Amino acid sequence: MSDPRRKSPLAHRKALNAPDGAVSLRERAFLAKFILRVSADGEVAEVLKLPVMANTSLKHNGSTILWLGPDEWMFMAAADGGGEMKARLGEFLGGVHHQLTDVSDHYTVIEISGRKAYEILMKLTPFDLHPGAFKIGHVAGTMFGKTAGLIINRSVDMPEFDIIVRWSMADYLWCLIAEAGREFGLPAQEPVGQVRGLRYREAS
Amino acid sequence: MFEIECPYCGRRDGSEFSYAGEAHISRPSGDEEISDEAWAGFVFMCRNIKGVQAERWVHSAGCRRFFNMLRNTATDQILAVYKMGEEPPEVEKQPLPSPSGESLGSGNDAVQVMGKGET
Fold it and tell me: Which of A69, A72, A141 sits opposite B61 (nearest CB)?
């Protein structure tokens, strides 16, 4: 993290842990994220190790590359790795028709892990998260409640998912996941809008 | 609720998609000289047939790509999905008759229009 004044969209939330490790929720703030749009034809895909198969991701040189569309990929790296990644991409892409956008502050990442993560996410999305269909390393853009999000299956021993969500919808999704996890012991979270006084007046 | 086969992402829930109007209509050329009538025809006068129609859809929550679809507007049956710029494939139009001979999916049974001579 370059600047200590940076504030993540979920800075007012603390990581949540259900008893017995059933499920944990935390924000992975400030990850460097870039969206690259380039034609997959030619040798660019090979040089940059772009995952050309739909809904897959690859790890390469410390960054994770996610398939977003037939000509669109997201590069993710650690918070302080953005500059280096951008320079490396720029080096490869010189002379190639492309668009590279820094979206580090457009999205944040919510990590949900634990053996009950499936059950919680199944309540929120119409997407088929069954491990037979949504394999490790796979990526999918779908809906979570009212917000669009990009989910990545990062499971190793335990179910573990990253959800990439827009900055302004992060608090909504956080509270939604906490609410869905209450039966497994996650504490209820009060949405920010209500704290700021948007609560409906109670009938007198 | 129904599922749609995105040509890029595969089969997904219908709520991830948005309808994006009629397919295969071309924008009138000649930006400034174009008549109001021609422009209104392009913007507003869409076909709205009961039966198989070519439509544009967008996978708005997924890969955010537009594609075309042949859909039966009466039954929601999806006959074909194909990419932008491609010609609509030949499909066999199935009438799906009901036991009484009337085509299925005619909407609210209470407001069905009676044919001539029917009582």
Answer: A141
Query: With an 8 Å Cβ cutoff, is B9 touching chain A?
Result: yes
Q: Domain residues of chain B, as ranges?
A: 3-107
Instruction: Report the mean per-residue pLDDT for chain A.
Output: 91
Q: Which helix (H) or strand (E) holds A92?
A: helix A82-93
Question: Quick one: angle between helices A117-124 and A170-180, nearest 10?
Answer: 120
Q: Where are the domains of chain A?
A: 17-183
Q: DSSP H helical segments within chain A, as ranges?
A: 44-47, 82-93, 117-124, 170-180, 192-193
ipTM above 0.95, yes or no: no
**pLDDT over 70, % of chain A:** 93
Superfamily of B3-107 according to CATH: Folate-binding superfamily (3.30.2270.10)
B69: nearest Cα among A96, B78, B118, A1? B78
Q: Which residues contact A40 (CB under 8 A, 6 or more apart)?
A: A50, A52, A70, A71
Q: Using an 8 Å Cβ cutoff, are A115 and A158 in contact? A: yes
Interface check for B3 against chain A (CB to CB < 8 A): the answer is no
User: Residue B9: which of A55, A72, A143 has the nearest Cβ?
Assistant: A55
The strand pairing partners of A59, in sequence order, are: A64
What are the chain B neighbours of A141 within 8 Å (beta carbons)?
Answer: 9, 16, 59, 61-64
CB contact under 8 A, B16 and A126: yes
Provide, as residue numbers in chain A, all residues whose Cβ is less than 8 Å from the Cβ of B3. none
Q: Selecting from 3.30.450.20, 3.30.1360.120, 3.40.640.10, 3.30.1340.30, what CATH number does the domain A17-183 have? A: 3.30.1360.120
pLDDT for the residue B26: 86
For residue A28 the two structure tokens come to 């992975």
Please check whether residue A66 is in contact with residue A140, taking contact to mean a CB–CB distance below 8 angstroms. Answer: no
How far apart, in whole angstroms, are the C-alpha atoms of residue A23 and residue A183?
Answer: 11
- Report whether A93 contacts A44 (CB < 8 A): yes
Our CA angle for B79, B42, B87, nearest 5°, is: 35
Write down the pLDDT at residue A196: 53
